[in-house]
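[Automated response] Your request has been received and processed.

Submitted sequence:
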Amino acid sequence: MMTRRQALKNAALIVTASLCSVPPLKAQPSAAPAGPFKLPPLPYPFDALEPHIDAKTMEIHHDKHHAAYVTNLNKAIADVPGAGTKSIEELLKGLNSLPDKTRIAVRNQGGGHYNHSLFWQMMKKGGGGEPKGELAQAIDKSFSSFSGFKDKFTEAATKVFGSGWAWLVIDNKELRIQSTPNQDSPVSDGFKPLLGLDVWEHAYYLKYQNRRPEYIAAWFNVVNWDFVAESYQQQMKA
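Generated structure:
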């Protein structure tokens, strides 16, 4: 006859065998954010703009802040018929056609998505210097010299109260400098943005703390003038 001890031992062996036969649980991939708008990949490594803009700031700025704008934009337009078929630029140009409860969200979240999508392309490793060709000529015409442009742009960026942006835009085929609060975008005012500088604290605080002028000066060393010049040529033809 089987003793009580043997019976318990056999039961334990059966349980152990059954557990071993169960396949291990696998981590489930996280679902992609629902909605038509997606976070564009950063066009260079996080540390590409060192030492002027640090890698940690770039990682948080792109993966957290920009990603949040995209997620919240998709939520804002989820119940608006036809909104998901429009480009972000079309939405920002047509803010007044949106329902009241959606307009502010698209202005803020959509503006944040649009502005940042341009911002990443306006910088590159080994950037800086001065523009060339037609863009350089247009800057000289509008601001007397590149130095004159740089001074005026720096002044506009420095004087943004709180959070916002400084921009070089095309206004009726002419260049002008404009600043916008929060995530407002020049396209909502009918302008064509060429170059923009994010002066929200999240863009520079880890490295520069409250020293915004120092951040602005450093940023000029990473400006992608090739991208800006190509954009200028395209916008002037449009």
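Summary generated for your ticket: The longest strand covers residues 164-171. Residues 133-237 form a domain with the minor pseudopilin epsh fold fold (CATH 3.55.40.20).
If you did not submit this request, please reply to this message.
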